[in-house]
Amino acid sequence: MTRYFEKACLHTSLGLLYLGERDELGTPAQTLPSGMVAYERALGPKSSGLAQLTVSESPFRDLQLAELAETSIQVTLGLKKVLWNRQVLFVGFTENIQNLNNTADVGFHVGLTQTFDPR
Question: Looking at residue 16, what is its pLDDT?
Answer without folding.
Answer: 94
